[in-house]
Design brief:
By secondary structure, the chain is mainly β. The chain has 2 domains: 121 residues, TonB-dependent receptor, plug domain (Ferric Hydroxamate Uptake Protein, Chain A, domain 1, Beta Complex), CATH 2.170.130; 166 residues, no CATH class.
């Protein structure tokens, strides 16, 4: 049978134990507390709003948190986020399945990048995904948000905020290796152009590959995102951007029956690395392109106008053989 599905993913598992010891009451030296910075969000209101003033439940996943946890997909970045179920298809990394507040319908189509919807072709195999290396933060808005975003799951939306050009020189390189032969190399460069410093650029890219726990299935991804910001006046700016991604190997996206995998069937169990496809036939290749711009004009400190436009395109090749349950004993 022909169909499609996707691969595994690895997330570092960590735990911490906090022990409080009761001590007799005694005079303690005064301690100066560190300054607390009040954070803001913009996903729930589409304007920067202090979290304490936002009348909706929002969780923010920062770039630092994603880096510390070593995530390689938005799906894994959303692990440990309240109200988010991120293991709908188990060890598959081909798409970012994000179930919000238990509403699985639309788990592929509630993702937005910089306020615009990312193509989520639900129940097919051309849904796009963004590598978290290109993101500054992820905001998970729980509860209905269609008034601001249009069609979306009643459970909420996942707002991705991309890295933007900065007018200060900066950059970094990252190299990573891991189990299942994981390896990746990534770069991120930004800074001003010209003496007037009216123009800034950002160039971000990554190349990554890994084996999976399922025999011949592999993952391979290359992506690059050039961005250019032009401060046309002190109040008007234009940002043009592109996101280009090629995946010659899309990994694993299938499964085996509960009976036989989790519980024994006829006294035997299926190995957790069992591959149910055909190695010489199965293939998943995806090329995605995004081109767009953001034009913003600030009338004063409280009022601004913003226009965004993005063109999306995705080419997918899918060949797959997969199991459809146990054969009838008759």
């Amino acid at each position: 049978m022909a169909s499609t599905h996707r691969l595994f993913l690895l997330a570092p598992l960590s735990s911490a134990l906090l022990i409080a010891l009761a001590t007799p009451a005694a005079a303690q030296p005064s301690t100066a507390l560190a300054t607390v910075t009040v954070t803001a969000q913009q996903a729930a209101t589409k304007v920067a709003t202090p979290s304490i003033e936002t009348p909706q439940s929002v969780s923010t996943i920062t770039e630092t948190q994603m880096s510390q946890r070593g995530v390689s997909t938005v799906q894994r970045a959303a692990d440990y986020t309240p109200g988010v179920y991120s293991n709908q298809i188990g060890a598959s990394n081909r798409f970012d399945y994000l179930v919000l507040r238990g509403l699985s319908d639309g788990s592929l189509s509630n993702t937005f990048l910089d306020g615009l919807k990312v193509m989520g072709d639900a129940n097919s195999h051309s849904s796009m995904r963004i590598d978290p290396w290109f993101l500054d933060s992820i905001e998970v808005v729980r509860g209905p948000a269609s008034v601001l975003y249009g069609r979306a799951s009643p459970g909420g939306v996942v707002a991705l905020n991309s890295k933007r050009p900065e007018f200060e020189q900066g950059g970094k390189l990252r190299f990573r290796v891991g189990n299942n032969d994981q390896r990746s190399a990534a770069f991120d460069l930004t800074g001003p152009l010209g003496e007037e410093q009216r123009v800034a650029f950002r160039l971000t890219g990554i190349a990554s590959a890994a084996d999976t726990q399922f025999g011949p299935a592999e993952e391979e991804r290359y992506a690059i995102a050039p961005r250019l910001t032009w401060d046309m006046t002190d109040a008007t700016s234009l940002t043009v951007e592109a996101y280009l991604q090629d995946e010659p190997e899309g990994g694993y996206h299938s499964g085996v029956p509960y009976e036989g995998a989790v519980i024994a069937r006829n006294g035997r169990q299926i190995s957790n690395n069992f591959f149910d496809g055909e190695a010489d036939y199965d293939a998943y290749k995806r090329t995605q392109r995004m081109l767009g711009y953001t034009l913003e004009h600030r009338f004063n400190d409280r009022v601004s106008a913003r226009q965004l436009l993005r063109y999306l395109n995705s080419d997918v090749t899918l060949n797959q053989v997969y199991g459809f349950g146990w054969a009838s004993p008759t």
